[in-house]
Amino acid sequence: MTEKILILDFGSQYTMLIGRRVRELNVYCEIVPYDKAHYDASVRGVIFSGSPSSVRSEGAPQADLEAIPAGIPVLGICYGAQWLAWKAGGSVEQSDGREYGRASLSVEDASDPLMKGVKASSLAWMSHGDTITRLPEGFHSIASTPSVSNAAFRVDGKPVWGIQFHAEVHHTEEGRRVLENFVRGICGCKGEWTPANFIEATVKSLRETLGNDNVVLGLSGGVDSSVAALLLHEAIGPRLHCIFVDSGLLRKDEFDSVLASYMGMGLNVRGVLAADRFLGDLAGVTEPEAKRKIVGRDFVEVFNAEAEKIENVRWLAQGTIYPDVIESSAVPGASATIKSHHNVGGLPKDMKLKVVEPLRLLFKDEVRRVGKALGLAPEILGRHPFPGPGLSIRVLGEVTPEKVAILQEADAVFIDALHREGLYDKVWQAGAILLPIKSVGVMGDERTYENCVALRAVTSVDGMTADWARLPYDFLASVSDAIIRKVKGVNRVVYDICSKPPATIEWE
Ligand code: XMP
After folding, report:
1. Pairing relation of β-strands 269-273 and 240-246?
2. pLDDT score for 399
3. Ligand 1, from 220, 225, 318, 341: best to mutate by most atoms within 8 Å of Cβ?
4. What burial class does residue 447 get, using C-beta atoms within 10 Å of its C-beta: 0-12 exposed, 13-18 middle, 19+ buried?
5. What residues does ligand 1 touch, defined as CB less than 6 Å away?
6. How far apart are the first and last CA of the chain?
7. pLDDT digits over 88-137, tens only?
8. How many Cβ atoms sit within 10 Å of the Cβ of residue 290?
9. Are the C-beta atoms of 12 and 334 separated by less than 8 Å?
10. Burial of 32 (0-12, 13-18, 19+ CB in 10 A)
11. How many CB atoms lie within 10 A of CB 346?
């Protein structure tokens, strides 16, 4: 990488979003804990993130300003801005509670390069308990809101800026422009971070690293492992050996259709039928975490057994993406407490393989862009996220082959209808859940006592927070009707209207 922006993470829940916004400007960036920054020749600028801490509290995180090479521009956001002001002798005090949510941002100094082209008045997103009440000498305000006079500042004669609003969130109308002004204008980044450049550089380095070695990769049917496979395939062709396991916990017909897609893309892939083993091991188990562990362990064992059949394997490839990498080194704070799930499958520790992770620098949306550029089949590219433990955690309570079959049918009716009505791509994730209760119904002249299925569809940007999708009533009515008519064993359908938080996307 010839140019990059370094983002120092002080623990804000928005840090990752800053990274995504910079990458959207086609500029490569890295997020590092605030006390672990390393400045090599490619660093063009530094951004300090927000933080759940207050600069006034004891033990508040401190950056090492001396370590930043002279002339490298710095932008502090929220806590980052307050810390810069406080460190230079300004005053930071508790705000009076009016600095949450939307605020009207007015540009005070239109000649400042950070404010170039920014509308004189626009909406900005505020979220802070502290505020800069007095700027230190040599700092001047370049933007304000009715309740915050120092919403943005510049340090005279130095390439240092601070903004107390969150330029990285969508609600900030001019956020993209402010970040672009910093990254492209002030730091002078050219914007060379494109899918094509990433693919070219990654394929080259994979070839160098892997030489003539064989690599094994577990495919899940999801976007990440599929894109990792295509990149490796591009680099080493049939020396990449892919394994796709049928756990019996996939969606209806998914194993066959996904395997066919993989073969159609030219991948060297073998399908392993292991449904009996997974379902056998799950018999009698009701506790969600216990189910997760069983499925995880079985994946590892089935994968291991299959991988051992391939000669000369030296590497295990994984579809790890950047948010996983950041989470494992996160600064304690808000960004660390909102955890996503670990992928099931884990690393087979006893295989003594070296690990190769071609996507470890990419955010999810970048993985999709790279996948598209590599010709990933659209049905895999646009696929909803699906939990590693599969339907085992959507059959609440004990998992039996009969219950999985009922759930697969109901789920297929729902998912097919979403596709047919053009709603599939409008939701982040959807699926059916089989509840461990029966209820009374009436069909024809018969009283029934059958299963209940819950439908879940959510909108989200990253799965960390989610809202229930406002699917049209008529659509829900027709899906409910079709499930009860077509799926034997179901006489009631309900729709989940909880957001996350306080609920989660999955029920277990
Ligand atoms: P929750 O239920 O925590 O899920 O709101 C957030 C996202 O993670 C997926 N998920 C899982 N993925 N193993 C996985 O690989 C799991 O055990 C697991 N549980 C939930 C879920 O489908 C959603 O996309």
Report:
1. parallel
2. 98
3. 341
4. exposed
5. 292, 340-341, 343-344, 385, 387-389, 429, 463, 500, 504-506
6. 42
7. 999 999 987 767 788 999 999 999 999 999 999 999 999 888 999 999 99
8. 11
9. yes
10. middle
11. 14
If you take atom 24 of ligand 1, which residue's CA is the nearest one? 385
Q: Please, what is the Cα angle at 123 between 121 and 124, to 5 degrees?
A: 115
The CA distance from 112 to 33, in Å, is: 29
> For residue 102, what are the contacts with CB-CB under 8 A and spacing of at least 6?
123, 124, 125, 126, 171
Judge whether 452 counts as a catalytic residue. no
Going by C-alpha positions, the residue among 78, 20, 26, 25 that lies closest to residue 53 is 78
Cα(373) to ligand 1 centroid in Å equals 27
Domains assigned to the chain: 4-186 (3.40.50.880), 195-381 (3.40.50.620), 394-495 (3.30.300.10)
The pair of three-digit structure tokens given for residue 313, joined into one six-digit string: 């394997």
Predicted confidence (pLDDT) per residue in 207-260, tens digit: 999 999 999 999 999 999 999 999 999 999 999 999 999 999 999 999 999 999
What gap in Å lies between CA 278 and CA 245, rounded to an integer? 11
Structure token digits, residue 178: 């402010």
Task: Given the residues 29, 108, 166, 187, select the one marked as catalytic.
Answer: 166
Q: How far is CA 464 from CA 31, 38, 167, 340, 457, in A?
A: 18, 29, 20, 7, 15
Classify residue 257 as left (phi > 0), alpha (psi -120 to 50) or beta: alpha
> Which residue carries 């004669």 as its tokens?
157
Between CA 407 and CA 414, with CA 413 as vertex, the angle to 5 degrees is 90
Active site residue 38: no
What's this model's pTM, rounded to 2 decimal places? Answer: 0.82
Of the candidates 206, 218, 215, the one whose C-alpha atom is nearest the C-alpha of residue 374 is 206
Partnered with residue 47 across adjacent β-strands are 7, 75
Given the structure tokens 């085992």, which residue do they identify?
Answer: 392
d(CA 493, CA 495): 7
